[in-house]
């Protein structure tokens, strides 16, 4: 860190999740606070959260986010509203507590406005890309406007050019950002996500869930179009129809953009009584349900986003020692390695076929689960990324210390 006795002051903008519920921001911010940084997070307010509090040394400012819907115009209104509110709150926190580093998470790519004045006054700007917005758009909607896609690329470029440095989550993202915006290679750094393996990352299986069927499937994560929950439902239908196995139950944990649509699909497929959409639930319940599962599923299909993205749910499954089935996408295989069975991309019958392999081979389930657990414990847990992240952040309060660190 700095040779100065004063702590470096970091303001972090986090729009798409409340803090501390965000999977990657939470451990990163607590890592900075534990290392002596003065950290403030500005984010939406979820549920019964208070507008201001301090959590494990991290100061949190929250604002109410109206619901604008899930159509493109709704997202545009949400991003415009959030960008204005977060720029104002940045100025407020800066005036009250000071600022050395402004750390901006995407999505969206419209928060760069909060960094213009800090940039002009010599503050460091870090842009942290967790989703490629143009690829999200092309994966989420069947009808793609070339003009809107160009706008998304332009917003991404402005955000990257304004930043002193760009963080990405994997090598695929790094190559896309370098190529798309012609950035110097030393300005883009890889900092991967990883589960925090602490005493809270264990749970007893849920006896009620365990009693619902001989084989319990589990899914964890958001449920938007690009997340492939429709693929999972059709694969489970094929488990019934094509392979004749019906003694199963599937718990799906997380928020859904179109819950009624997914429930209707499950009912139409004749599996509604064996699927349970829990919505958002507390972490202890989530871990208990995943601990109960015999097979965990990552049904993210091949599309412009998923083909290059690292999915957090796979690492959660692995950390709990659970065997997984996923489509054989590039970054799925980089993450899980031999800890998962891979179906042919977007082939729901083949996904069901992999389910059957695991159902019929308990020993294989145990073997894959142990491979995944060891892979997390020895390579992919946040503890292995923490040192890289701190080393990286420590050099960013002075331009002459800027470097690129991959990990």
State the helical fraction.
40-55%
Give the C-alpha Rg: 21 Å
Q: β content, as a range? A: 15-25%
Strands, count: 14
Write the CATH homologous superfamily of the largest domain: Glycogen Phosphorylase B
Structural class assignment = alpha/beta
Question: If you consult CATH, what is the topology of the largest domain?
Answer: Rossmann fold
Strand order of the largest sheet: 3-4-2-1-5-6-7-8
Q: Give the helices and strands as they follow along the chain.
A: EHEEEHEHEHHEHEHEHEHEHEHEHEHHH
The top-level CATH class of the largest domain is Alpha Beta
The averaged pLDDT comes out at 91
Q: Any idea how many domains?
A: 2
Largest sheet: 8 strands, mixed
Unreliable stretches, pLDDT < 50, 5 or more residues? 400-406
Distance between the termini: 19 Å
CATH architecture annotation name of the largest domain:
3-Layer(aba) Sandwich
Oligomeric grouping of the chains: single chain
Q: Categorize the overall geometry.
A: globular
- Total helices: the number is 15
């Amino acid at each position: 860190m700095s040779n100065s006795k004063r702590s470096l002051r970091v303001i972090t903008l986090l729009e798409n999740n409340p803090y501390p519920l965000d999977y990657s921001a939470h451990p990163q911010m607590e890592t900075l606070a534990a290392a002596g940084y003065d950290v403030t997070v500005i984010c939406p307010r979820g549920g019964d959260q208070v507008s201001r509090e301090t959590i494990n040394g991290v100061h949190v400012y929250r604002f109410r986010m109206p619901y604008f819907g899930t159509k493109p115009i709704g997202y545009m209104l949400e991003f415009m509203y959030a960008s204005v509110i977060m720029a104002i709150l940045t100025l407020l926190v800066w005036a009250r507590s000071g600022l050395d580093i402004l750390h901006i998470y995407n999505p969206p790519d419209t928060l760069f406005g909060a960094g213009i004045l800090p940039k002009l006054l010599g503050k460091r700007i870090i842009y942290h890309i967790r989703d490629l917005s143009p690829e999200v758009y092309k994966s989420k909607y069947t009808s793609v406007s070339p003009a809107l896609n160009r706008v998304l690329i332009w917003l991404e470029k402005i955000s990257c050019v304004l930043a002193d440095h760009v963080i990405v989550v994997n090598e695929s993202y790094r190559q896309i950002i370098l190529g798309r915006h012609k950035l110097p290679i030393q300005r883009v750094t890889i900092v991967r996500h990883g589960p925090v393996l602490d005493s809270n990352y264990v749970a007893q299986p849920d006896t009620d869930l365990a009693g619902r069927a001989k084989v319990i499937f589990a899914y964890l994560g958001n449920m938007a179009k690009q997340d492939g929950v429709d693929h999972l439902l059709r694969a489970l239908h094929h488990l019934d129809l094509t392979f004749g196995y019906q003694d199963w139950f599937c718990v799906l944990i997380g928020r859904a953009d179109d819950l009624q649509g997914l429930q209707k699909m499950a009912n139409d497929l004749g599996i509604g009584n064996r699927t349970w959409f829990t919505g958002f639930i507390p972490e202890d319940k989530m871990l208990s349900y995943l601990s109960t599962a015999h097979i965990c599923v990552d049904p993210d299909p091949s599309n412009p986003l998923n083909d290059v993205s690292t999915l957090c749910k796979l690492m959660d499954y692995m950390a709990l020692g659970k065997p997984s089935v996923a489509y054989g996408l590039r970054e799925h295989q980089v993450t899980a390695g031999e800890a998962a069975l891979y179906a042919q991309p977007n082939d729901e019958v083949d996904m069901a076929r992999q389910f059957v392999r695991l159902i019929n081979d308990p020993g294989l389930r145990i073997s894959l689960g142990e491979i995944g657990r060891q892979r997390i414990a020895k390579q992919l847990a946040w503890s292995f990324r923490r040192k890289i992240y701190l080393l990286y952040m420590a050099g960013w309060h002075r331009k002459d210390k800027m470097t690129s660190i991959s990990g």
